[in-house]
Amino acid sequence: MIMYIFIAVAAMLVGSRLSTPSFLDWPAASKSRSETMTALVYDSHGDLDVLQLRNDVPRPIPRDDQILVQVKASAINPVDFKYRRNKVPDLILPKPKIPGFDLAGVVVSTGKKVSKFQVGDRVAAMIPLLGSSWGAAAEFVAVREQHVCKVADSVDFESAASLPLAALTAVEKLQKIPEPIGKKILIHAGAGGVGNIAIQYAKNVLGMHVATTASSPKAEFLKSLGADRVIDYREQDFTKEIQNYDAVLDPMSYLYEDRTLNSGSTVLNNKGIYLNVMSSDWNLVNGVEKANGPLSFKNLFKHTIQNHFQPNSIPRYDFWFVYPDGALLQHIMDLVEQGKIQPVLDSIFDLADAKSAYKNMESGRVTGKVVLRH
User: Fold this and answer.
1) Which domains does the chain have, with CATH numbers?
2) pLDDT band at 206 (very low <50, low <70, confident <90, very high)
3) pLDDT in tens, 295-314
4) For labelling, which of 83, 130, 162, 179 has a CA lying 20 to 30 Å from the CA of 96?
5) Smallest Cα–Cα separation from 140: which of 94, 107, 115?
6) How far apart are CA 360 and CA 374, in angstroms?
7) Residues 324, 325, 328, 331, Cα dihedral to 10°
8) Measuring CA to CA, which residue among 241, 243, 244, 224 is closest to residue 232?
């Protein structure tokens, strides 16, 4: 996790896509000197005990390009507790930190340069992953206009809040598959936050044949979302079950990357693409999360260079970090309203019971998203 954070920052500095305003919340909204709000915060890194619900947290003052949202619901993602338990430098994750990157709520004020939203609008957004102490687990959040989308009256705030980070991760990746209609994709961890959206988008929007890995009790549910085939990762070896596919979306690369891409694997055909979500294990071994940092960069280099000189001789390789995108999030939210994507909520907790919500999420046994109701 720490390695991936530094990679992201380095990429920003060399002028990659991450250098755009979307990935960083710099400069962040300023803090009010007189108005306070209730928010979940932590002052130092550690386990659940460092989380505090406080009612004396300064309210954000939105910049001219920002919207102030009264948050009605927020969601928890693995990155939230990984940031909390890893010692992320204050330069890129200032403390005291309010966790949470997914939110839904109502606009209460707008900056001078905001033109697409007005007070009273129902909205959802993803907050940038780096650069700010602000987060979604709060009474109010200031968000850039370009990161916000409108939420239809038919979509409840809890469902809307469950979508931004996971759905953007899935769709940003899947849109990199050229001419997807009729092609075959393997989506690992189909019951997870990214996986269940990816299944629905790949099937209902891109018209793909979808296989996924999950435990057998979740098979029928995933088929109801659009999976054509569910491989029980506890009993079956996906490398023997899946052959000659056109794409693999892998939110658990620390487990599956090497098995997917090693020299003897035929999971992907040579014109296929491996989409690495760049994650680390939820569990700690001697205080460290398992991740594929060096292996991933070795594979990226190998597959990029070989395909440059010998096109279609080896599957293409892609990885990137999710970034806020209000226009794409609006596309996703419209699909929810149309019934083509169904938000999957594992559980809903009150903000006052946030520690229980995090404990549930950190168990690694959830299906879909864990949401906080504000």
Assistant:
1) 21-163+343-373 (3.90.180.10), 166-319 (3.40.50.720)
2) very high
3) 999 999 999 999 999 999 99
4) 162
5) 107
6) 18
7) 80
8) 241
